[in-house]
Write a structure and sequence with these properties.
The two termini are 26 Å apart. A hairpin with a 5-residue loop joins β1 and β2. A nine-stranded mixed sheet has the order 5-6-4-7-8-3-9-10-11, sandwiched between helices. 50% of the residues lie in helices and 11% in strands. It is α/β, with parallel strands linked by helices. Bound molecules: adenosine-5'-triphosphate and magnesium ion. Magnesium ion binds next to α1.
Length: 557
């Protein structure tokens, strides 16, 4: 048995929703650890993972929603659950009610007198500097130092109207303004020395490259849409931990490359907001699910690589969604991607077509071990041929000629039937034996080869993939049907196959006749004082009726 019985994991409130079992019952996994989805383009990541989960998930959520479909389909439902819904959509590409539209200025949450001001500013700067190549970390560190210093400088000016990232960008975009600011920052102690460090970085030998890298990483802030979305705040990301909030980040796919830093900034600040202790000094606040579609566009996030295991303690569950395994390896390396798998309780795969991912799924599903191979079939026992010939012999001794003839015919026919049954048993045994040998040959080989995985999870008959393979920590793999949100209501289980009615009638008559003949033989062999042929015939008839009503047909097995 490759797949475990998914009906053992019924969906309950607060579980991560996966899909439907073979009887169309909802399947879910209750866990506080992370999840990971790797699914091909157009396979149903939005319609069958993100949206159904948002419609059910009772706790807080931060969602990367590139096309805005999740916000459109779930914002009102989540608001009805009592959640404060904030849709940050810089380019207005989602069709949501204006009451849900929101803006967020990460600098609003900064307190210059806080003991953690340095860390808080560095988090924002880390959210802005897109890290891809580990080789370039020196240049990225330099750019981050410059941006951190400028944020600290803008905060220290104490003018709420200009205390935002757009002002930081304005300094970077204008050489004269930057020189003036740096001149002041040289002697500024504000924000735990970040201003002075930025000055030092800019004046170092590679300073020009650091500044140029900082300019490159902040160019996206020139966008009017971004400026509007980030200039002021209509909510605080701290609500993800201390309140009841759902935050949607909408950014169309064609802007992902250019404006991926916008998503990175929010995710980075969101993680920080969850990691911070609440005002009552509690490490754990509200449970929050980060549904991170287009995870690749966030670039490498150190915090996720190193502290993913700790996040559970803050009530933070990450659910990164990627198109293929190669994306994860490109960002986090082979070892790093293993850590991702290790930290996630649920690994979900569907619509995969690339060889690397298919091989990975096949490996993770494992190899066939001996316990999965059924025992060999038992050989059929040889028929005891004498009984029916005996009937013929008993009948032949009768004085009644018709009894003699009928007895001989019945005895011969039954003996022939028995021989046919014996041949069929032998044939069945041979087939079972062949199957057993095929099963034995599977021992030690992958339970599902990569090309078989591709067939199972492909998008074939439907608009979404047919099945998903889910690997749940410590359990056997699950094969689950996708449940896209637009297909509401439970689908009815398919009707069991019914026998054609004509065949049913033939079998029914046959069973009745056979029972009647058996009754007649019994009457011949034993003295009974009732008409056994009619009584047995009636039993056969009733069995046929019961069989037809309960199983939709009459089988002779
Ligand atoms: N409301 C709907 N009604 C019918 N079909 C839909 C609906 N929404 C999406 N679909 C179809 O469902 C399929 C999966 O869509 P979905 O957006 O979930 O895919 P995805 O995996 O997120 O794709 P992408 O890689 O483009 O983000 C697509 O074929 C899409 O056309
Ligand atoms: Mg999608």
């Amino acid at each position: 048995m490759i797949w475990s019985d998914s009906s053992q994991y019924p969906y309950e409130e607060g579980s991560l929703f996966l899909g439907l079992d073979e009887n169309n019952n909802e399947v879910g996994i209750k866990t506080e650890r992370h999840a990971l989805t790797i699914a091909g383009a157009g396979a149903g990541k939005g319609a069958a993972v993100i949206i159904p989960n948002l419609l059910k998930w009772p706790h807080n959520a931060l969602v990367i929603d590139p096309k805005g479909e999740a916000a459109e389909a779930t914002a009102q439902t989540r608001a009805d659950m009592g959640q404060a819904v904030h849709v940050v959509d810089p380019f207005g590409s989602s069709r949501v009610d204006d009451k849900f539209r929101a803006s967020y200025n990460p600098l609003d949450d900064l307190d210059p007198d806080s003991l953690t001001i340095r860390e808080d500013i560095e988090t924002i700067a880390d959210g802005i500097v897109m890290r891809g190549d580990a080789q370039a970390s020196h240049w990225d560190d330099g750019a981050q130092a410059i941006i951190s210093g400028l944020i600290a400088y803008v905060v220290s000016l104490g003018v709420p109207e200009i205390c935002n990232l757009i002002t930081v960008r304005q300094f970077l975009a204008d050489e004269d303004k930057l020189a003036e600011a740096m001149h002041e920052m040289k002697n500024l102690d504000a924000c735990a020395g970040l201003c002075r460090e930025a000055f030092n970085a800019a004046s170092a030998q590679e300073g020009r490259y650091f500044v140029s890298n900082a300019q490159k990483n902040t160019r996206w802030l020139d966008s009017r849409g971004m400026a509007k979305a980030l200039a002021s705040s209509s909510f605080s990301l701290a609500d993800l931990k201390t309140g009841r909030a759902s935050v949607y980040l909408v950014l169309p796919a064609n802007y992902l490359g250019q404006h991926g830093r916008f998503l990175r900034l929010f995710v980075r600040c969101g993680i920080e907001a969850m990691a911070r202790k609440s005002p009552a000094h509690d490490l754990r606040g509200q449970q929050c699910l980060f549904l991170l579609d287009e995870f690749f566009s966030l670039g490498y996030i150190d915090e996720i690589a190193k502290a993913a295991g700790l996040m559970r303690g803050y009530g933070l569950q990450l659910w990164p969604i990627l198109q293929d395994l190669g994306q994860l390896i490109t960002l986090y390396g082979r070892e790093g991607s293993e850590t991702f798998f290790a930290n996630a309780d649920v690994h979900q795969f569907f619509g995969n077509t690339d060889q690397l991912t298919l091989e990975q799924i096949s490996t993770r599903v494992g190899v066939t071990d001996l316990s999965e191979i059924p025992l060999p079939p038992t050989p059929p026992t040889a028929p005891t041929s004498g009984f029916y010939q005996g009937i013929g012999a008993v009948a032949s001794k009768s004085k009644n000629t018709s009894t003699k003839v009928l007895g001989a015919a019945v005895g011969g026919a039954m003996s022939m039937t028995q021989q046919i049954a014996a041949n069929r048993a032998q044939q069945r045994y041979q087939e079972e034996m062949n199957e057993y040998q095929r099963d034995m040959a599977r021992h030690g080989r992958p339970r599902v080869a990569p090309d078989e995985v591709a067939l199972l999870v492909q998008k074939k008959k439907d608009v979404v993939a047919d099945n998903m393979i889910c690997l749940v920590y410590g359990r056997e793999p699950l094969l689950i049907k996708l449940a896209p949100y637009f297909r509401t209501g439970k689908t009815v289980s398919p009707e069991p196959p019914r026998q054609p009615f004509a065949l049913t009638v033939i079998m029914w008559v046959f069973i009745t006749l056979l029972s009647s003949i058996a009754g007649w033989i019994a009457q011949m062999v034993m003295p009974v004082n009732f008409n056994a042929a009619i009584a047995f015939g009636a039993i056969g008839f009733l069995y046929g009726l019961w069989s037809y009503l309960t199983r939709g047909g009459v089988w002779l097995e």
